[in-house]
Every structure is written in structure tokens, then in C-alpha cells.
Fold these 2 entries.
Entry 1:
Amino acid sequence: AQSVTQPDIHITVSEGASLELRCNYSYGATPYLFWYVQSPGQGLQLLLKYFSGDTLVQGIKGFEAEFKRSQSSFNLRKPSVHWSDAAEYFCAVVMGYSSASKIIFGSGTRLSIRP
Amino acid sequence: DAGVIQSPRHEVTEMGQEVTLRCKPISGHNSLFWYRQTMMRGLELLIYFNNNVPIDDSGMPEDRFSAKMPNASFSTLKIQPSEPRDSAVYFCASTWASSGGADTQYFGPGTRLTVL
């Protein structure tokens, strides 16, 4: 069965430092991959997505993610974090593109920013 | 654009009572999703509608939960009777595509349900 793993429950980084959040998936073919962000008390917002093509995907708020087929990974990166990036980040996968496709979310990584 | 609208934002009820959560998707969107978020289980997809028709309800926990979408601009999630373990934040999301979750979903602000 398809699955998505975010191994880091909570990460703290200093403001201005670089960030990498890990995401691994399990599936026999290339899935559709997403990163969503959830600020406290709010719903989720899409940061970026990968469907095909260039494996380095640019998103909003200065985030990027790289799809690595050999590692079944889709890690999220940002070169310099801002205090406003403190939030929970969810990786998600969808297998196939049809009305029957089902999205699976990872358990999330909570990001704290150290002043 | 008002975005996805959910009501109420907060609901506190007693065990055994009926609870109805409401969602208005973004105009023009034809797919709607209901999710439940808890600390223990994370974010779970409960049910997904496409063109007002339930496509996948495999995530609905049990018969106490039911969802309807009588038209393209309104959906409800009902719990009857409610139990303390139903306490969670319930999100509604919508998208314009008929692709399951494979297109950008727009989430509402959520309804925080507390069952005493």
C-alpha cells in the first residue's frame, strides 16, 4: 500500500539558517507529490507540487523541493528561514490522476524558529 | 474570492448529541473533501465528493458519521451520536479538478469539535 513518511516530528532552526524537511514515500511508480503548510489555527495551504519533468520544483514563500526517484524522496528546502515560517509542514502523495485517486498525508513536521 | 467557508468554527457538545458541520466550497470547484485532524492520527481523509457524488468514503470511521452534498455549493458532515473520541479539527477542502487529490486543494479554516 502507498505510504508517506516524515521522519522528523519537530525541528528547530535559527532564523536565517537553512532548512531541509524530509519526506519519503512508498509506491511502485512515480506519484504526484505535494508539500502543504499549516499555520497555527488555520487550514493547509499548498507550497508546491511535483507531477513530472524537472525534479527541482519551486514553490511559494521561497521554498523548493527535489524529487529523487532513486531514494523515493521529496525533501523540502529553504536557504534562509524567517520567523514567519514557523508552522507545520505536511508532505502528501497521490497515486495516479483520476477521480478515484486518493491523497495520503504524512504525519507532519512541526518547524520552530529560534530568534 | 471568499475561499472555502466552514461553520461553525468551534463546537462544544455533549456525548450522545448530534453534530452537523457545514462547508461551502469555492465557487466553480467540483471536488470536495472532508478531513479530520487529531494529534494521535494526524490528518485523515474521511470522504471525497466529485460533482456532488461520493467517490470514496472509505475513511469514514463508522456508521455514526455521514456526509452529504446536495448541491455544488454546500456539504455537511454529521455525527450522530457523538462521542468524546470524535473530538478533533475537521477540515473541508475543495478543488476544480476531477482528479482525486492530485490537484491543488484549498482548505477551509476548520471546525474545532469538542465532545464532552
Entry 2:
Amino acid sequence: GQNIDQPTEMTATEGAIVQINCTYQTSGFNGLFWYQQHAGEAPTFLSYNVLDGLEEKGRFSSFLSRSKGYSYLLLKELQMKDSASYLCAVRDSNYQLIWGAGTKLIIKP
Amino acid sequence: IAGITQAPTSQILAAGRRMTLRCTQDMRHNAMYWYRQDLGLGLRLIHYSNTAGTTGKGEVPDGYSVSRANTDDFPLTLASAVPSQTSVYFCASSDSGGGAADTQYFGPGTRLTVL
């Protein structure tokens, strides 16, 4: 079966750096997405990786290793507004998105 | 530009009743999707449409139906609601161009409770 694994919850301090990991086992691979979802709101797109390596976008970076079935989202200079759930999703061989359950990130002052 | 709108925002429904959740996008995206989100689970695809006039079944289609008469609208119907359909429902759309261009954009969601 297809599976996306992420930690359920993480806690970090304002101003610090946090890394959220995602491992996947899917039938085929056509890209990996990270979304942010604040409580009670819709998911919003953060990043997309299809080739191995690091994609940097401001305070957020996303890394992919296709051979290891592994990605991480790196958030730098954490702000209170970064408190949210972070969703990892993989596009499979049928071009459908398979979603992880999300990682709830709690930022403490 | 509104993006994607969904209606209603929330609804409490008696079991056995019929309900249609509405979704409209103004981005002229080809593809549209319906997901449900339950606590502790990832988003699960219910139905999708790659282009107007076509629809397909996702991971959890039972008890739901969709139609895609035009590019903008993609309603989801629960023919006879059951309590297990209590969930938050998200509609999404994408340009369906493949690669980075095929990012899905989400509506604000409908919170449905079936009693």
C-alpha cells in the first residue's frame, strides 16, 4: 500500500530552526509537496520538489532524496504565526496526491 | 478574484437526508477535486474531475457523487447522509499542466456534521 509518514506533533521555540521529516512509500513518484494549514483553515501551498536536493524559499526550505523516499521541510527564524500543521503529499504514478496526516507544529515564546 | 469558494461554511444534517456541497472556482483551472479531512488522517480524495464533462473516483467515493457540467463548478452530493460522513470537506483545483504548475489550491472548506 501507499504510505506517507510524518511526526504527529513537534514543539519549537520562537526564533529557532525546526526540521519536519516526511518519509514515503508510493506507487511511483511524480513530485512531493508541502502545505501549511492553520487550524480551521484550508491548506496553502508551500513548496514542490521533484528532483533531489534543496529548494529554498525565504525562511522555508524543502529537501528531497528520491532514493531514500525522504523529504524534510526546514523552517528558520520561527515566528509565532508559523504555528500550524504541515502536510506532506506525494504525487503517485496515477498523478493523484497521497497525503500524510500532517505534523502539528507548536511554537513557544 | 475570489479563487475557490465553498458553500455552506458549515452544516448540521440529519442522517438519511440529501445534501449538496457547492464549489466554484474562477481561476479557469481544468482539474477539480473533493477531499475529506478527518482528525489523525491525511486528506483523502473522494472524487476528481480532470476537465469539464469528466469525473473519476478517488480513494473514498462510496456514498458521494459529483458532476462537472462546466469549468467553474464542481458540486458534491451526499445522497443519503450517514454519521460516518461527518468531516471537513475541501474542494481544490489545479491547472493540470503537470509538474510545478499542477499545484492544488484549496477552498475554505465545509464542516459537515451528520447526526
